[in-house]
């Protein structure tokens, strides 16, 4: 017994001297900067990476997940900067997280911390009841010490397990935050993700029966820490072969920041049974044999061996540098992933805008043919031109009225010419075309609603900056709220009314005036001829022989004949003049008809541009400008990201 106590004392002194030596060595390294990587370079890289985050990452308010949000990485790098700036010694931070209540992470920690051979069972009882009074807390920090407030989140114990390593441990125990129903998506809360990533060593405990490993390993919060240990609560034959690790690596996200965790198989309940076997009678051979069987069968020692393998790679300074570089790489990887998503979203926006723009251009190209038909290639080719056909049909109807309005009827209805012609024009002028345009106006209104709804759908679908610009949305809303925006039944028929009024106001008025002048001229000619005939006839009655025109060599009969001829010539002149006036009226009709076709096509183009497509075109133009601007911003951020990545690679090579 004395020999055992001497050996224990010797081991205790050896561990104490070794700890003092490691502490002095770490302090010396921090004081002299001999850590493999200059500390100021790490701090500079941390500062530059933190400055890059707001340009590359979106905030949590925009619906991003934990490991993709700006706030998460700001907190991580801020804590890393503070830790890297410190020159004081600190224990190794180990975070232990049980995926669910069946992972038995609490039993695993209890089995590691308990002293099965101690004579003071009160310390073991304190370890087992460490969560009492802290039900509202999600984490419990376990460190070496002699005092612990039962309601505090810091639990101190004198367990020798925390000080048996080259560097003392500080364990942060995280309670399960995920139910078995949500394991398929497996989204950790912010605090748990930050705890696992900020720890020097992260231990994730899962039960393979309740937790599918693919869903677990696909979560970046589990694999971002380079010192992640995955504890599977099973003691089946350990399949940690090369083939198993290759299959396991396929489940980990293929990014530079994700790491394949170290997988060990442990049975915490059997480890607890091993400790309980020695509590009754530690000298009993049966109890000792039971302890050995359960201890070896639980594989609990693989946890300690894995921790020693990680901690034996260097001092706490080396581990701190490794974690700092890992955090920087993870942050840069998150920025890179965010930029890839931004590029994909930019491409999707470009495709959506391009698709809508194609629809707009197609509508512009088709609307002329669908509404007004193809324009006539020549005056004689009217097939397919709706306007020319409508004007020709109206001319046919009006011609019937004009043909009945001969010069003889015109004489008796000279004051009604404008009324007769105006009524004919009103009744015949493109009535079918007007009804057809009103019908097409409804179709244009439906097209307007469709493309306007499409641009709002694009803005709603891509709700991340800069595409969810409220300025752009408000400008489109102002366009749609404008009084001139709706397509009304009168939108396309305006030129028909204008050209109809033009025919009535100008050519018809000139025709009316021409008729009046013709009647006056014809009346004057008839009156002159009648006067000449009367003068010759009057001389003959008076017995003057040659009559009143005898002085000029005209006898009475000749004078009467000349007078009658003058009257007939006046009527002939009136008939010809009236026909020529009607011909000029028809020439004006044709010119107005051609102008109507041009006006309708111009009005249709203007309606498409200023009413039907104005909101969609404005939105597409502004979105295209935002895409170009966003592309330039992404390229600038990628250049800065490449520089930081190259600096990080150089530091990692220097630290090896």
Automatic annotation (TrEMBL):
| The keyword Coiled coil belongs to this UniProt entry's keyword annotation | yes
The UniProt keywords, alphabetically, are: Coiled coil, Membrane, Transmembrane, Transmembrane helix
For whether the record's keyword set contains Coiled coil, the answer is yes
Q: Which InterPro entries match?
A: Mmc1_C
* Regions crossing the membrane: 518-542, 548-575
Q: What sections of the sequence does the record tag as coiled-coil?
A: 627-654
Residue stretches making up the Mmc1 C-terminal domain = 402-587
| A Pfam family recorded for this sequence | Mmc1_C
What is the protein named?
Mmc1 C-terminal domain-containing protein
- Show the taxonomic lineage: Eukaryota, Fungi, Dikarya, Basidiomycota, Agaricomycotina
């Amino acid at each position: 017994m004395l020999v055992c106590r001497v050996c224990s004392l010797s081991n205790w002194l050896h561990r104490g001297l070794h700890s003092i030596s490691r502490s002095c060595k770490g302090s010396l390294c921090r004081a002299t900067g001999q850590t493999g990587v200059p500390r100021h370079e790490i701090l500079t890289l941390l500062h530059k990476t933190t400055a890059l985050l707001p340009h590359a990452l979106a905030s949590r308010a925009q619906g991003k997940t934990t490991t993709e949000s700006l706030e998460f990485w700001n907190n991580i790098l801020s804590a890393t900067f503070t830790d890297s700036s410190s020159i004081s010694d600190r224990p190794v931070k180990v975070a232990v997280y049980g995926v669910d209540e069946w992972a038995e992470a609490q039993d695993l920690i209890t089995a590691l911390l308990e002293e099965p051979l101690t004579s003071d069972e009160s310390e073991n009882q304190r370890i087992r009841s460490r969560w009492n009074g802290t039900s509202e807390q999600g984490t419990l920090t376990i460190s070496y010490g002699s005092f612990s407030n039962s309601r505090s989140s810091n639990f101190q114990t004198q367990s020798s397990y925390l000080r048996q390593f080259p560097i003392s441990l500080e364990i942060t125990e995280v309670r399960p935050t995920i139910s078995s129903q949500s394991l398929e998506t497996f989204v950790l809360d912010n605090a748990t993700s930050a705890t696992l990533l900020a720890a020097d060593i992260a231990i994730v405990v899962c039960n393979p029966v309740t937790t599918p490993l693919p869903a677990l390993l696909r979560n970046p919060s589990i694999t971002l820490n380079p010192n992640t240990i995955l504890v599977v609560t099973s003691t089946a034959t350990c399949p940690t072969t090369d083939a198993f690790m290759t299959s396991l690596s396929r489940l980990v996200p293929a990014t530079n920041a994700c790491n394949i965790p170290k997988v060990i198989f442990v049975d915490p309940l059997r480890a607890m049974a091993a400790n309980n076997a020695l509590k009754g009678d530690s000298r009993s051979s049966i109890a000792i044999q039971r302890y050995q069987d359960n201890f070896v069968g639980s594989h609990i020692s693989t946890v300690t061996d894995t921790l020693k393998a990680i901690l034996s790679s260097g001092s706490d300074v080396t581990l701190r540098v490794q974690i700092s570089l890992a955090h920087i790489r993870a942050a840069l990887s998150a920025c890179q992933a965010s930029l890839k998503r931004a590029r994909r979203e930019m491409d999707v926006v470009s495709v959506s805008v391009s698709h809508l723009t194609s629809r707009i251009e197609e509508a512009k190209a088709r609307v002329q043919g669908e509404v007004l038909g193809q324009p006539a290639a020549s005056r004689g080719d009217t097939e397919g031109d709706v306007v020319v056909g409508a004007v020709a049909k109206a001319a046919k109807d009006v011609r019937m009225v004009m043909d009945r309005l001969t010069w003889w009827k015109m004489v008796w209805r000279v004051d009604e010419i404008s009324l007769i012609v105006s009524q004919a024009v009103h009744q015949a002028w493109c009535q079918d075309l007007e009804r057809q345009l009103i019908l097409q106006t409804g179709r244009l209104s439906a097209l307007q609603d469709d493309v306007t709804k499409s641009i709002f759908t694009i803005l709603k679908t891509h709700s991340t900056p800069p595409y969810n610009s409220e300025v752009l949305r408000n400008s489109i809303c102002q366009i749609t709220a404008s009084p001139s925006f709706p397509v009304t039944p009168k939108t396309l028929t305006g030129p028909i009314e204008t050209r109809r009024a033009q025919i009535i106001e100008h050519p018809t008025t000139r025709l009316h005036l021409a008729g009046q002048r013709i009647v006056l001229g014809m009346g004057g000619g008839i009156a002159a001829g009648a006067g000449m005939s009367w003068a010759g006839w009057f001389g003959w009655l008076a017995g003057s022989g040659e009559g009143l025109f005898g002085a000029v060599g005209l006898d009475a009969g000749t004078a009467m004949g000349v007078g009658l001829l003058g009257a007939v010539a006046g009527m002939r002149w009136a008939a010809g003049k009236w026909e020529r006036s009607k011909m000029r009226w028809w020439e004006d009709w044709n010119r107005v008809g051609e102008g109507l076709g041009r006006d309708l096509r111009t009005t249709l183009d203007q309606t498409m541009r200023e009413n039907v497509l104005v909101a969609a075109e404005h939105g597409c133009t502004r979105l295209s400008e935002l895409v170009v601007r966003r592309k330039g911003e992404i390229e600038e951020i990628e250049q800065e990201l490449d520089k930081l990545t190259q600096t990080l690679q150089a530091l990692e090579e220097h630290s090896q």
